[in-house]
Design brief:
This protein has about 475 residues and is an alpha/beta fold. Helices cover about 30% and strands about 15% of the residues. It has one domain (about 1-440): TIM Barrel (Alpha-Beta Barrel), CATH 3.20.20.80. It is globular, with a radius of gyration of 21 Å.
Amino acid sequence: MTLALSTESNIKRADPSTIQNKFLVGYQGWFYCHGDGEPVGPGHHGWIHWFTYPVPDGGAPNFDPWPDLSEYSPSELYPAPGFKHLDGSQAYLFSSRHPKTVQRHFHWMATNGVDGAFLQRFVGLVHTDPGNEGIRAIRDEVGDRVKEACEKEGRVFAIMYDVAGVAPERIQEIIEYDWKHLIHDKGVLDSPNYLHEKGKPVIAIWGLGFNDQHHTPELMRSVTNFLRTYTPGGAYIMAGAPAHWRSSKDDSDRNPEFVSAWMESFDAISPWTVGRFSNQQEIDNFKNERVIGDFEFIAQWEKDHGKHVDYVPVVHPGGSGEHISRGQWPMNGAPRAGGRFLWRQMYNMRKHGAQIMYGAMWDEYDEGTNFLPVVSQQHQIPHDEKDQFKFMALDVDGYVLPSDWYMRIAGYAAEALKGERQINEEFPEKELKDWTHSHPNYEDAGSSSAGPSGSGGHQGAEYAAAPALHA
C-alpha cells in the first residue's frame, strides 16, 4: 500500500492567496481510539466520537455509515471492540490523531482536486479550565497534523471557531486566549498553506446568532473586532450562520438587529443547511424560499452600503444520525440518492451565482454527512456480538457505488468553481465513473511544485509514475 505525496509529485496545488472559486470542506478531526496516544485523562477508555464507550461494556456507537478502511495501512487501524466481519475477522476504525491518517484524508482532497478545509476549533473544548488539559492538548495535536498534512499535500486550511453550547459570557474570553495561542505558540499563520483573502488570513466563526443561544449583536461585533485588530494584517471573517439569518425566525435569533450585524461584522455569510431539507423537492423549496432571497439581499446591501459580502453556501451529501441522536433522528433520514441529493444542492447554488462552496463535512461520520469513504455494500459492514446495532453502506438507496464516490463529486464541484467544468442540472454519472482515469490533475511542466498551481495539468498515465511514500 502506497501513499503518493503531492510535494514529491506534481499534483496541482491549491492557491492559498484567495478563498474565491474554491470548494472547501469542514474537517472535524475528532475520532479517537483506544491506544492512539495519551488518553484524555486517567482511566479513560480512549474511544471518542466513535462510541460512547466500548460496546461490550454497554456502550453505543455514535455513527451510522461504516467507513471503508481498505486503503488505510495496518499502523493506522485500531480494533473496534466487539465488532467483527461476516467471516469472523476483527473490525477496525481509524484515529484522527494518527499522522498518516490525517495526511491520507488531505491526500484524498489533493487527488480529487478539493482545495482544502476549515479545521473545526471547538470553543467548548479548547478552554483552559482545570480538568480540560487532555482534550485541549488533543485538539492542538490534531491541529498540528492538519497543518503538516496541508503543507505536504498542497491543500489550504483555515480555522473555524465553533461556539455551539458555550455560555455566551465565555465565548470571547476563550477565543481571545486561543487565537493568541494559535498565532504565537502553534504558528498557524506562519504556514504557507494558511488560507488568505486579499492578504488577510481567513477565519470562520460558526454558531453565533442561532435561536435560544442568548447571543447578542454586541457580542458578535466584539468578537469579530478582536480578530480583526489582533491578527497581523487584519482578517477576512466568515460567519457560519443560521439558515434563516436574514429573517430572524426559525433557527435564527429573534432580535432583528442581528441582520445588520451579520453584514457589518463579516466578510462572508455561510448559512447552515444540514437538517434543513431531506429530499430534492425540499432542496428546491429551500432555494426558492431562502437562497434566492439571500443572494438578492446581499447584492442590495452592497448597492446601498458599498460593502461586498461573499455568500458561501453549505452543501452536504445527505445525513443519518440515528445512533448519535439515540433514535430521535432516523437512519438515512436524508438519503444520498447516489449523489443526486448533493448534486441538486450544488446545481441550485451554482445556478444562482455561488462562487465558493463549503462542503459539510469531510469526515463527519456521526451525522452521516461525510465525504470520506463508506463501504459500498451492506455485506461489508461488521456486526456486534448481539447484533443490536445496524449501520449503513452506500447501497442503502439502491446504488452500488465506489466508496470514494462523494470525494469525486466534491472534486468535480471544485473544478466547476474554477471554470473547468459545468454544474448542469443532469447528474454527471459517466464523468464520475471515469473520474479515476483523469485524476489527479498535474501542474504544467516547468511550474514550481511548491507554488500555486497553473491553469493546466497533465493527466492519466503520469499518475502511476508519481513518487510514493510507503505507508
